[in-house]
Amino acid sequence: MGYVVALRQASIPIGVLMGVFWLHESAPAPKRCGVVLLLLGLVMISL
After folding, report:
1. CB of 46 within 8 A of CB of 3?
2. CA-CA distance, 37 to 1, in Å (whole number)?
3. pLDDT single digits (tens) 30-46
4. Residues 17-26: contacts with CB within 8 Å, 24+ apart?
5. Looking at residue 25, what DSSP letter applies?
6. CA–CA dist 28, 1 (Å, integer)
7. Contact 40, 14 (CB under 8 A)
8. Is residue 15 a contact partner of residue 38, using CB atoms and an 8 Å limit?
9. What is the pTM of this model?
10. Distance of alpha carbon 32 from alpha carbon 36, whole angstroms
11. What residues contact residue 13 under an 8 Å CB cut-off, 6+ apart?
């Protein structure tokens, strides 16, 4: 069950990265911090 949740939540940082690199959206510090925290949570779930 944990892998399903991690895979579903992985779309959020992927979407943010696509927006920043492809659409040239801004990436202020709170957005970067949120993405990093989300990625750390995904890593913890997958362990």
Report:
1. yes
2. 21
3. 998 998 998 888 888 77
4. none
5. -
6. 33
7. no
8. no
9. 0.69
10. 6
11. 35, 38, 39, 42
